Amino acid sequence: MSDVSQLQKVLDRIDAEFDNSLERLFALLRIKSISADPAFAADCRAAADHLCKDIATLGFASEVRPTDGHPAILAKSNSGRAGKRPHVLFYGHYDVQPVDPLNLWHRPPFDPLVTNHADGRKIIVARGAEDDKGQLMTFVEACRAWKAVTGSLPLDVTIIIEGEEEVGSKNFVPFLEKNKQDLKADFALVCDTGMWDPNTPAITTSLRGLVYDEVKIKAANRDLHSGIFGGGAQNPIRVLTRILGSIFDEEGRITIPGFYDGVKDLPADILAQWQKLNLTPETFLKPIGLSIPAGEKDRLLIEQISSRPTCDVNGIVGGYTGEGSKTVIPAEASAKISFRLVEGQDPDRIRKAFRDYVTARLPGDCRVEFTEHSNAPAVALDWNMKPLAAAGRALTEEWGKEAVLMGSGASIPIVADFKRTLGLDTVLVGFGLDDDNIHSPNEKYDLRSFHKGIRSWARILASLAEQPR
Amino acid sequence: MSDVSQLQKVLDRIDAEFDNSLERLFALLRIKSISADPAFAADCRAAADHLCKDIATLGFASEVRPTDGHPAILAKSNSGRAGKRPHVLFYGHYDVQPVDPLNLWHRPPFDPLVTNHADGRKIIVARGAEDDKGQLMTFVEACRAWKAVTGSLPLDVTIIIEGEEEVGSKNFVPFLEKNKQDLKADFALVCDTGMWDPNTPAITTSLRGLVYDEVKIKAANRDLHSGIFGGGAQNPIRVLTRILGSIFDEEGRITIPGFYDGVKDLPADILAQWQKLNLTPETFLKPIGLSIPAGEKDRLLIEQISSRPTCDVNGIVGGYTGEGSKTVIPAEASAKISFRLVEGQDPDRIRKAFRDYVTARLPGDCRVEFTEHSNAPAVALDWNMKPLAAAGRALTEEWGKEAVLMGSGASIPIVADFKRTLGLDTVLVGFGLDDDNIHSPNEKYDLRSFHKGIRSWARILASLAEQPR
Q1: ipTM
Q2: How far apart are CA A454 and CA A295, in angstroms?
Q3: What confidence category does residue B82 fall into, taking pLDDT thresholds of 50, 70 and 90?
Q4: A315 and B319: CB-CB below 8 Å?
Q5: H/E/C letters for each residue in A233-256?
Q6: Strand residues in B166-293 grouped as ranges (E)
Q7: In which region does residue B109 sit, left (phi positive, over 0), alpha (psi from -120 to 50) or beta (all else)?
Q8: Which residues from A are below 8 Å from B330, CB to CB?
Q9: Which of A59, A339, B88, B186 is spaced 20 to 30 Å from B363 by Cα?
């Protein structure tokens, strides 16, 4: 049987088995593996156990391995031909984001369903439908089809799935260090990114970094009555809004001293390529109800969202936030703030610059506390990496459209961690769409993303196997 | 029996009966009459029923009367001598503030207890211990003692107690209009204010007004992932903090155009009198852990908190506020903002000026919604009003220190409502202290305030009865 007809049998098998693939994804989606909330620790463990067992059915040597947080799954394909053919390390995460505000969901977030999008697309709706359960299962199902048809995989595969990606993977890097021996591979594959648009596949070649900090400002030793103390006592919400409100200037630039140090303009050829992609507010912002790019006024929208560093306040709270009114001056107010970094920015320096900025603006009688949540540098991959070309060819075949090499505005810190701890380059392929509502109510994954995602990985595995090592 | 010896018997009775007075206050404090939260509507009703029955035991014709919100209690002393002697209308409110943040309370807020303050004072701890259950019960218990000793009251008394003071008394003014006939009196008494200090009684002769608005800023049609959309999509928290952060200038002045229109400086003689009171950061701010007056830099602290208008953000919320981190750009962010007004400021104009200020600073793609919570002008009473002198004499006798006529930074909108709807002037006497934690966790009322408060009202009733009408 030729390699081509073998691949065709695998693709046919994927089509024939698709309902079962979907049922296996649903079983995983029903597990409430919210990593941020300690109340769901047992669910995280259950998701790890479930995936471990499922992957074992493919003939992988599969184990749940402890970390200092939620456990990870480590599975090896055991071909008995180690070292004789390419070996890939596939990465995904089984943990999901919290579901609040729950009242905005149209159905229970952990009760997955295939339904119709307003525009007629079939979609899978559930927390994690895309990020990252749906995405990681495209790879698992592709392996399953190869094993079912040929009894083996085209190359050696190690699968590592973690449970703390959504909370900064704090315990995962030490885990990588400790399990280095078991994680040897030629390069890594990650399925946690998106397509260029619903018809155009993409390989992500740069990722923004992420510095996430929490700032709490405290003034009086207790909540105060604003009638008695108003005018005389400092109000931490006033201080917090004043400081955060000054972070952007009129041109949309971030005013923190040193923030743009080391940030380079795009090379002219890439800028020209991006200009041709013609990302307009009409296509990118209109679906979310907006029309005006909110970043630096002298930059293209595509630069604002992928090659320029940003700052967002992701959460703020202080004082009385219930129904009606309360005349209180609160004792404290806090905010969660994140910075997306690009190549050339050092996370530690950015965090320090932000903290210095806040501290310098703190009036007397106020104290500030900071809590670190994430700390990852940007990643720029080598656009000429060989596996990247192989993956690109496979994607182009599956989707009938040239795969785009693109920069992503998001952060996947594990890519830098793989390079640093394991010395591995990463190929980032994923099938998410901009309207998937990840991290939001009503998260979805297009049924087509899931189906053609599985087919894409089946092709990529074959294509990578053909690569000279 | 002379009037003097009669009063002494009443005061003796108060001392002898004090444990029972306290038990009756506790019974009221155990009722969770939080007016802001619809979940406690039945508790509000229960508080009204309880008070109505208790006041009926004094021989008052007492009824619970409906309003369009929580009900009110209307009780008349029925002396049969109507029109022949002074008639006072006493006002209090049975509703209390919400109790959050509950984790900062040292004990359950609706389980009252007498305990020792750190400095040795005996205090009653519970939500409403001062505001306003403790305060209103000082008057009820004074009436009870007069009835017990003499079989009657020194003057005619109508008691009106409402259940929506803490949520802006929206339904109370229409109630006053509707019940005008039953509320006729010569003047009003209100017990919802404080002492000058723990040893110095006070009558409040000016009150700041209150404009309370809620502002909600909306941008995208859903929460967004800050990696995918960060830099390109508008963030409502960024907009809200930018607008609120600009409300104060470096001198602590409010920058909203027209805000200070009509605000007058204090008359020189009053300013001189206030300077003599020597309110220092050491005495006023140190107990709450602060040291620097936060208001207009060119004003005395006592002006900042009582005769100058202010602005406070009482609450702010947007995005993810739970444990850990979430990389979200929220669809909306909101804040509760209040302004304390002084004589010369028009609440409607101030509200409009604030809303115009926000709207003018709103970037494209953002919408704003406002919700009105309170709207009350400042009140300045006539310092030469006769009942005020009579009350002052009684207070001076009870406390052994000259009663101070003072301005309050707080707002009691009912005082303006009484003037407008019933044509009544109000005498404001209360026994609260600055460290009572009203509207905060661990609200308390000094046992001495409760005890000497009852005695004070017993004296005031006698003193007012002696006034020529």
Answers
A1: 0.77
A2: 36
A3: low
A4: yes
A5: CCCHHHHHHHHHCCCECCCCCECC
A6: 187-190, 202-207, 209-218, 224-225
A7: alpha
A8: 314-315
A9: A339
